[in-house]
């Protein structure tokens, strides 16, 4: 399959006419063919008009049809074969096994949402049957279901070119909910985006769906993204990226005559708490696990452990010594883009110059362009509390260890943290009471709490939460990974005193879809419908 440099507006391959972007192989700094000219305002308008035209029919597709569509996207992605893998490796500098794994995760994610769509629990059906004899007033028949919000703008993430890009978690969950999707491709991997975009468009066609269900736009700079978020036919936004980018999109969404929700996953330093008994018992092993998590994928994960918090003592000293020795032997790894490499260098540079952050170890320097040299810093709790800049995310393999004098200081440091995607506790039995006392604070701060594990590696499952208070995300009530991500793109509608023939299938008296429904406050018995 030859890459064309075209966007997809519904089923049409369209050449943009604004400034072109070109992928750069970060391992060599060489630009890759072809060029991807950007969308004009008219292209954005066209994609939004098609998405809006598709919405009412797509959202009422039978659950089996929509589930089959998601599975067909997965099949089409797999059938792209090695071309997709090679292009993604070239555009991102990520190793081939990582890209192969990510393709597996992407397809599994689509198939998982197909299972969710078929089961129909996300429709959240609640039925309050009429109580005609109730005094002093009768109760009407009330039936609630969830309906999709409308077309969703999705911003592909640079650090997951497949699993959080064109057909990644945001797109899969929005399509599962019944929302058409318009993707603004990330400029770092346009060829990967084109290939996956064509796979999605082919699935739309094979499944006989309206063409506006999916479009893919390119754009160098912010204009396309802002135009998309500002279009009145867009009803929600999914985003993974920088804090500045997420905030800019939230502002644009709020400035509309009709504001819309933005589900932005932005910035997290993922504190790791090392409790005294655990440190004393296995400080060296903890250091090994920590350095492996910190340096995996050049640290380019939103769940990267960028902060370690622990009480001073011989256990912590052993941990730091072992971690420093390991970091010094870590070879440099190519980062995703020159921009991300430069941002990493700037962040590390600020810590190197900071009067109260001491460099404890640096990894091996890279010989090639854009290579991330791992860094480990140490600071004292009072210094950390005194300077908010010390908790800024450095996207890459850099982490700061905060030494606390006692339990009270540990609590102060945790209280001082911004919102986080994760908080990790390493503990032994003797640490349990101390950990229990901190749980209420940690629950206020983070979306996922882990014990004796590492935050990198996010399971796509029913119970997963990949979210958290600002700035981890712009909306802490939701998750962007896992099946609950579908709930972001839904809203409830109540039908009062509808005749059965006019009710949507999910709400009909006979429960023809065999859904698990809440009937008069109880789970509905299947023979009682
Ligand atoms: P980014 O700069 O936030 O860009 C992500 C997407 O949002 C791109 O499509 C970008 O479009 C768009 N965008 C950004 N700012 C915008 C604005 N003001 N208005 C409209 N659209 C805007 O993220 P990135 O390029 O992936 O990486 C940059 C930095 O983001 C990294 O160094 C890292 O700090 C952070 N990051 C964090 C995570 C995480 O999971 N926490 C993941 C990836 C990156 P254009 O490229 O066309 O401007």
Structure description:
- There is one protein chain.
- With 529 residues, the protein is α/β, with parallel strands linked by helices.
- The protein has two domains: 8-16 and 42-266 and 479-487, Aldehyde Dehydrogenase, Chain A, domain 1; 271-451, Aldehyde Dehydrogenase, Chain A, domain 2.
- The chain has helices spanning 41-58, 63-79, 82-92, 96-119, 169-177, 190-206, 223-230, 243-255, 276-295, 314-328, 338-353, 381-386, 407-416, 432-445; strands at 7-9, 12-14, 18-21, 24-25, 30-31, 36-38, 126-128, 142-148, 152-155, 181-184, 214-217, 236-240, 262-265, 271-274, 307-311, 333-334, 358-362, 371-372, 375-380, 398-404, 420-426, 446-451, 490-496, 518-519, 522-523.
- The strands form seven sheets. A seven-stranded mixed beta sheet has the order 17-19-20-15-14-21-22, with helices on both faces.
- Strand 24 and strand 25 (522-523) form a beta hairpin.
- The mean pLDDT is 97.
- Bound molecules: NADP nicotinamide-adenine-dinucleotide phosphate.
- Residues 16-467 form the Aldehyde dehydrogenase domain.
- Keywords: Oxidoreductase.
- This is Aldehyde dehydrogenase (NADP(+)).
List its salient traits:
five-stranded mixed sheet; 14 helices; Aldehyde Dehydrogenase, Chain A, domain 1; ALDH_KGSADH; alpha/beta; 529 residues; Ald_DH/histidinol_DH; binds NADP nicotinamide-adenine-dinucleotide phosphate; 2 domains; seven-stranded mixed sheet; single chain; Aldehyde Dehydrogenase, Chain A, domain 2; globular; 37% helix; 19% strand
When the domains are counted, the total is 2
Q: Which range best describes the helical content: under 10%, 10-25%, 25-40%, 40-55%, 55-70% or over 70%?
A: 25-40%
CATH class assignment of the largest domain: Alpha Beta
Main pleated-sheet profile: 7 strands, mixed
The bound ligands are:
NADP nicotinamide-adenine-dinucleotide phosphate
């Amino acid at each position: 399959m030859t890459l064309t440099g075209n966007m997809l507006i519904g089923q049409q391959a369209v050449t943009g006419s604004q400034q072109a972007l070109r992928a750069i192989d970060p391992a060599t700094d060489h630009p890759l063919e072809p060029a991807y000219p950007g969308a004009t305002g008219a292209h954005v308008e066209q994609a939004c008009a098609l998405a809006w035209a598709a919405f009412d029919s797509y959202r009422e597709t039978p659950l089996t049809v929509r589930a089959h569509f998601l599975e067909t996207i997965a099949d089409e992605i797999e059938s792209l074969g090695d071309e997709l893998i090679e292009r993604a490796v070239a555009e991102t500098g990520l190793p081939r096994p990582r890209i192969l794994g990510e393709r597996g995760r992407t397809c599994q994610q689509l198939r998982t949402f197909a299972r969710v769509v078929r089961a129909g629990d996300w429709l959240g059906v609640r039925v309050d049957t009429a109580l005609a004899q109730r005094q002093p007033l009768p109760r009407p028949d009330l039936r609630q279901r969830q309906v999709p919000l409308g077309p969703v703008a999705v911003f592909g993430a640079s650090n997951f070119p497949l699993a959080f890009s064109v057909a990644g978690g945001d797109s899969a969950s929005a399509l599962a909910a019944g929302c058409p999707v318009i993707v603004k491709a990330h400029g770092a991997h346009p060829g990967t985006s084109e290939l996956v975009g064509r796979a999605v468009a082919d699935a739309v066609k094979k499944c006989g769906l309206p063409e506006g269900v999916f479009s893919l736009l390119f754009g160098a700079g912010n204009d396309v993204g802002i135009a998309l978020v500002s279009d009145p036919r867009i009803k929600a936004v999914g985003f993974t990226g920088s804090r500045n980018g997420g905030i800019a999109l939230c502002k644009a969404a709020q400035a509309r005559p009709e504001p819309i929700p933005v589900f932005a996953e932005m910035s997290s330093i993922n504190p790791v708490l090392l409790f005294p008994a655990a440190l004393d018992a296995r400080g060296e092993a903890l250091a090994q696990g920590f350095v492996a998590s910190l340096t995996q994928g050049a640290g380019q994960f939103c769940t990267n452990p960028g902060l370690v918090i622990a009480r001073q003592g011989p256990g912590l000293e052993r941990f730091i010594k072992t971690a420093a020795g390991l970091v010094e032997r870590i070879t440099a790894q190519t980062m995703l883009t020159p921009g991300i490499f430069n941002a990493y260098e700037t962040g590390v540079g600020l810590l190197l110059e900071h009067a109260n952050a001491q460099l404890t170890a640096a990894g091996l320097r890279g010989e090639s362009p854009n290579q991330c040299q791992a860094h480990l810093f140490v600071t004292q709790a009072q210094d950390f509390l005194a300077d908010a800049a010390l908790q800024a995310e450095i996207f890459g393999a850099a982490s700061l260890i905060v030494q606390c004098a006692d339990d009270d200081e540990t609590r102060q440091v945790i209280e001082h943290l911004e919102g986080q995607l994760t908080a990790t506790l390493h503990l032994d039995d003797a640490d349990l009471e101390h950990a229990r006392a901190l749980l209420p604070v940690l629950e206020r701060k983070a979306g996922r709490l882990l014990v004796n594990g590492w935050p990198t590696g996010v399971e796509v499952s029913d119970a997963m939460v990949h979210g958290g208070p600002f700035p981890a995300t712009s909306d802490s009530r939701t998750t962007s990974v896992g099946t609950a991500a579908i709930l972001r793109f839904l809203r409830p509608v109540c039908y009062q005193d509808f005749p059965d023939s006019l009710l949507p299938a999910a709400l009909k008296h006979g429960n023809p879809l065999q859904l698990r429904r809440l009937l008069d406050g109880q789970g509905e018995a299947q023979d009682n419908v």
